[in-house]
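We now fix the convention by which a protein and its fold are recorded. Here is one such record, which you should read through line by line:

>
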Amino acid sequence: MVGFDKRKVSIAFALAVLLFVVSFPLTSWEQLSEGSIAGGSARTFFHVRGNAAASPLALSALTPVLIKSAYGLPSSGGAGTTIAIVDAYHDPTAVNDLNVFSRQYGLTPVSFTQRATSAVDSTGGWELEESLDVEWAHAIAPNATILLVEAPSNSVADLMNAVSYATSQPNVVAVSMSWGAGEVSGYTSYDSYFTKSGVTFFASSGDSGAGVIYPSSSPNVVGVGGTTLNLNPDGTFASETAWSGSGGGPSAIETEPSYQQTYGVQGTSGHRGVPDVSYNADPNTGVLVYDSTPYKGSAGWWIVGGTSAGAPQWAAIQALGRSASNANFYVDAKSASYASYFRDITSGSNGAYSAGVGYDLVTGLGSPLTTNFTPVNVTQTVHLLLSENPNQATYTKGQPLNLDVTVLNQLNSALNSTLTLTVIGPGNYYYFDSQTINVTANTTGEYSFTWSIPNAAGTYVVEVGLVPAQLTAYDTAWLKMN
C-alpha cells in the first residue's frame, strides 16, 4: 500500500460551561458509522449529542479541567513522547480545528504531524472522529507530540498498515484506535501488529452494548469500555456508573491471555474478556470537540461521547506515566492498592453484562485515578527474566527451542507458585505450558520450557508469568520467524 512501510481555562469558566442552560434543543444523539463490518471495514465509535456552530458556551459538556479533576490527572505532561492516532480518510481541517480547541482551553501549543495517505475526504463522520481523538489526546497530555495517521480507507487492512506505520515512527509510546469491526477468525493474524516494544495500544470496545469488536479484543491491546461520569454542581466528582452502550463480553476468536488468567477473570470460559479499563463515554456527559468540517450541514463545537473518547485519553495517560499496560493493570487490580489505581465501577450494565466489584465485562477493571500504574511491591520483590532475547537469535522452523526463565525471589519466604509460558502467533496460533516452581527466600531459580517452533513465518509473542497473582511478575519478548 502506497505510503506505508510495514517494516518498519479556569475552574470558573469550566463550571460555567458545565452549568450553562442550553438555549436551543439538542439533537438526539446518534452513532456515526461507515462501512460494512462483515465486509472487512471498520467503523468509528462515537456519539453526538448536540452542535452549536458559534461558541462552546452554548453547550453543556465536560471540559479538560473537569475531566482531569475527576480522574486525578495532572495539568501538564507528556514531553518527549508521541501519541499516534490512527483513523481513516483525510481530515483537511485537522490542524486548524486542533489549534482552535487548544486556544479555547489555554492549552500548550501543540506539536502536531498529520500523515495523510489519500486526498479522499470522508463524508461519514471520520473527520469528527479525528477531531475528537487528536484534541482530547492533546488535552490530557498537552506536552506530547500528536501524530495523526490517516489510512486511505476504513478497510481493516488499510487501518492495520496505518498502525504499522505509526509504530515505526520515533518516540511513539501509545497508539489510539477509536474504531473496530465485528470479530472474524482471520483477524487474529493482526495481533502481531500490536507487539512493538515500548508501545501500548488502546482501542474502543464499541458503543452498541454487549458484544465484542476487534482490535479491542486482541490480547495485545487495551480495550476501553464506557461509563457515565456525573459531577456535583461545584464540578467535583459525584458518581460513575457503567454506560449502557459500552461494548464488552467474551471474545469469540481470542483465547484468554495469561494476565487475565492470573487475575482470575470469571465468566469468559477461557476466552479473552473485553474491555480492560473504562472511561467517560455517555454522550449525556460528553466532551466538547471543535470540527469545522461540516457533518450533515453543521460545523463548529459539538458534544461528543462514546468509547471513541476513551481510547485517545487512555493513550495520553500512557504518555504521561509510561506505565499504562495490561501487564500492569491486572497486577494493580489484584493488589491491596487497587483503589489507588482505579475507580471500580460497580453499577450499571450493557444489556447482557453488569458492572460489579473487580473486573467486569462492561467496564473492565475500572476508570483511571492515576498516571502511574507501576505495581507496588511486585517488581521490587519478584522478577522474571527470559535469560535470552529471542529477538537477537536465529531459529529454525519446526525445531524445538528451550526458553530459559530466571525467577529472582526477594521475598522473605519461600515462593511456591506456577510458572506459565504463553506464545501467541500469526493466525490462530496459541501455545500454553506451565510448571510448578519452588524458590526459597531471597534466592534465584532457573527453569526451562521446551517449545516447538511452528513452520509459519511471522512474529510470535512470548510471555512468561507467575500464578498466584499476589506473586505476579511478567516478562515478554518477541520472536520473529522469516
Remarks:
- The mean pLDDT is 83.
